[in-house]
Amino acid sequence: MPEDAAALLRDNRKLLLRVQSGWAPPRGGRSPAVSAAARLVAAVTALAAAVYGLALFVAERYPPFVVIMIGSALLMVSVLLRPRPDAEVARRRAREREVYEAARRHEGRYVVRDRLDDPARGLMARAQAAIDQVMDSSVNAEGLLDDARNAVMLPAQEWEIARLLAKLSELRADHQEVVSEGVIPEVAAVAAPLAHALDSSQEAVLARVEALERYAGHVADAERAYRARNQIERLSAKLPRYEELLAESGADGSAVPELSRLSDDADRLEQALRESVSSAHEAFRHLDG
Question: Are 277 and 145 in contact (CB under 8 A)?
Fold first, then answer.
């Protein structure tokens, strides 16, 4: 769904829950612009009636003058005393209508976390933590992973897991409501396979989440190797200055070979990084399949 609509629903979660529970904003209320126009028309009508009443007075037609002036006065009083909608109330009603329409327009394209039961929320949190770990990693930002596919596939995986968990939570709640009333053996014979279906679905979603976590684990290994390699490279770049300092200070030259091993460490970390990235790619292909 569009990001602006998603942000609107995220920022109004409580109102969204009310909409999903069947609430709808009241209809029939006039907008502030319409109300202002109605007051203006009433005021102009009252003024015109007053002018016409004065003309009747000048013509010495007193009975109709009295009637017209009373009507004009009553109309003007109604305009002055009519309560004007508070600006904050108007804004709140407009926001309620906006959220309601967005929720209905994009129904079926979002999942509200509050609608998930406890097991589903736990799995959803694990999936999102794994995805965040991958997307926030330096190896992904540097393009060492397939960052383009990550940007497409991981949100798709997140949505599919959320969609399945929402359906699972709803069916699990319905099933529990029925069996909690107590069932006769004939009904139990039907309920048991349905409960097994729910458990099997839970295990299938769990397998998806665990695949994401395995991928995130390989990415974490690559991230550690990447950071260590960068640190070694930064230290190696300053190696000549360390050697110069040792020579100038007349310190024990045995430290020089130890420093020279930095290059060997960098090579080993480079190999570890390549192996970690390769493992991450393998895990991603498994996730994609």
Answer: yes
